[in-house]
Amino acid sequence: MRRFLYICCACLLALSVGCAQKKYRRLSPEVYYKDAQDALKNKKCYDAELLFRNMLSDFPGSHLSDEAQFGLGKAFQCQKDYVTAIFEYERLLNEYPVSPYAAEARFQIGECYYQDARDIHHDQDETHKAIREFARFIEDYPQSDLVSQAEERIKALRNQLAQKDVMIAYDYILWKYYTSAKLYAEGVLKEYPGTESALEARFIIAQVNLKTGALDEALNELTLLIGQDLPEKLKEKVIEEMEKIKKAQSKLRVEKP
Fold first, then answer.
1. What is the mean pLDDT of residues 171-180?
2. In a domain, 40, yes or no
3. CA distance 233 to 16
4. Which of 122, 49, 34, 47 is nearest to 84 (CA)?
5. Averaged pLDDT score across all residues of the chain
6. Cβ contacts of residue 161 below 8 Å, gap of 6+?
7. CATH of the domain at 73
8. Residue 53 falls within a domain, yes or no?
9. Dihedral angle, C-alpha 151, 155, 156, 159, nearest 10 °
10. What span, in angstroms and rounded, lies between the C-alpha atoms of 69 and 50?
């Protein structure tokens, strides 16, 4: 009886495996590709992965091989497995360098790093990698329709790096390491001019001058800053600091003999 049950279970298992394999098998690369694309469109990422993978295995010399390789990268990206997605995109670039999908594959490598980048409270390694990959994409494919999007990505990523340095500078002020705070703020002005974070960096420099007793320098910096097109929250902080400095200056004048 036990042997009979074992045989039945084995048969059922083999049947289920066979059905599962059949689910992801197609008779032509065209059908594979259509079904895999439909799976991607419907966010069935794992189904798309298996279909693209089996297509490449069953029809390695197909005229759709580069499309399938690109699709495999998209399937892993859909699953948020960015490391594997990057590997598959790089494989496309290595094996099909003249493919019409090569430009977008290079872009998507940057996009994977962009999607995997962490916020300013964490390490920014993926942020730096994303910037490098988007810059490489723009250099390699300057005529691509995706160039403007890559430039916007770089702008957003650079602003994130600037925000990280601004956050560190504020921390140094909190810890009363004023020299370090000023160095970080000056670094933002040098590396990321024209960003909203650069305006914040100038405010930090004014704060450092205020904390170290350089009231005139602090007021001059804030006076120049208030003439800029500031975000409302920063504008409020600038006005508040200017009022503090003016009160401190008035107090000093009264105390002078």
1. 97
2. yes
3. 61
4. 49
5. 90
6. 124, 127, 128, 191, 192
7. 1.25.40.10
8. yes
9. 170
10. 12
Measured distance CA(72)–CA(46) in Å, rounded: 10
Task: Tell me which H or E stretch contains 31.
Answer: helix 29-41
Q: Both tokens of residue 247?
A: 């009160």
pTM above 0.85, yes or no: no
Is 214 within a domain? Answer: no
- Residue 142 lies inside a defined structural domain of this protein: no
Residue 255 pLDDT greater than 90, yes or no: no
In angstroms, how far apart are the furthest CA atoms of the chain? 110
Alpha helices in 42-146 (DSSP H): 45-58, 65-78, 82-95, 102-116, 125-140
Give the integer Cα–Cα distance in Å for 109 and 116: 11
Task: Report which residue type is found at 196.
Answer: E
Q: Could you tell me the pLDDT band of residue 61, with boundaries at 50, 70 and 90?
A: confident
Domain that holds residue 72: 28-99
pLDDT score recorded for residue 147: 98
Supply 114's token pair: 């962009």
The yes-or-no verdict on residue 79 having pLDDT over 80 is yes
Number of domains within the chain: 1
What type of residue sits at position 231? Answer: P
